[in-house]
Design brief:
- The longest helix is centred in the middle third of the chain and has 20 residues, at 199-218.
- The chain is of the alpha+beta class.
- It has helices at 64-81, 103-118, 125-133, 139-142, 185-195, 199-218, 222-241, 252-266, 290-301; strands at residues 2-6, 9-13, 18-20, 25-26, 30-34, 40-47, 54-57, 60-61, 86-93, 147-150, 161-163, 169-174, 272-274, 281-286, 308-312, 318-320.
- Strand 3 (18-20) and strand 4 (25-26) form a beta hairpin.
- It has nine helices and 16 strands.
- Helix 8 (252-266) packs across helix 9.
- It has two domains: 2-166, Ribosomal Protein S5, domain 2, CATH 3.30.230.10; 169-312, GHMP kinase, C-terminal domain (Alpha-Beta Plaits), CATH 3.30.70.
- Belongs to the diphosphomevalonate decarboxylase family.
Length: 332
Amino acid sequence: MSTAVAHPNIALIKYWGKRDEDLILPCTGSLSLTLDVFPTTTTLTADADAAADAITFDGAVATGSAARRITAFLDLVRAQAGITARARVDTRNSVPTGAGLASSASGFAALAVAAADAYGLALDERDLSRLARRGSGSACRSVISGTAVWYAGTDDATSFAEPVAGPALGMVIAVVDAGTKAVSSREAMRRTRDTSPYADAWATATAADLDEMLAAFGRADVTAIGELTESNALRMHAAIMASRPPIRYLTPQSIALFDAAAALRADGLDAWATADAGPNVVLLCRDGDVAAVRDALRERTGLPADRLIAAHAGPGARLVPASDPAPAGVSA
């Protein structure tokens, strides 16, 4: 039995689009911040007597595509370990699933760490990042503590995430809608690639954005980091909305939160908005400003306190004793 905990990450430079769907190799590199909120806890037990994998999410038996996706991932681990034993997998998820808050990132990062340990694979952080990527691309970044860059690479061996040094950053997550989105990220990526006239421009611009972002981190330039974060998010959503038929994740309230970030900056409080593939908006700021940004955002938008989540840089995916209580879902 092995138990692992992982947290979601929010991309500052987005991952959107695969050039290899089997290996999950991205069209471009990306960069993210792993958070200290919304942990996923996964316990895996190898069972030589079982005829099939048994998978539960928050106490409910997983079926359909969700179960098949996990079994396919475990087959990769079993092949690498040279072991055929099936597994019992129990996952407890505190991040809303399918809401654009990186639930698959924390989920597959935790699964990768637990499965590698249970099946006896001695993997270092880079190897775990490669493995997690095969379950969900962004999961390779949740293996890493704090800020991580995911290299697009040219093959399986060269596409992984590693830490990036830089200034202390924090976030305020504004939960617009915690429900499951109508179009999954995987489907939306395919539709963007196949039908959006901006897909190629998105990839070219994002590669340049990543180079600029790494340079901004190198000189600890928070303003440049924030401006690149907001611009890159809006470029991604522009490419998505240009798909046919169109996909629109951002709601009027989402756009209002981008406007609120601009208003906070005009008032002298630095914060920049970003959004993954969903309606929920995240404000990036200096770590010491998280509480002030949350309070100012609540005053400006009227959102209740339980929908404004303060977050800081968090730990990478890691093993924990099975007897440990589940980590808290959010931080104060």
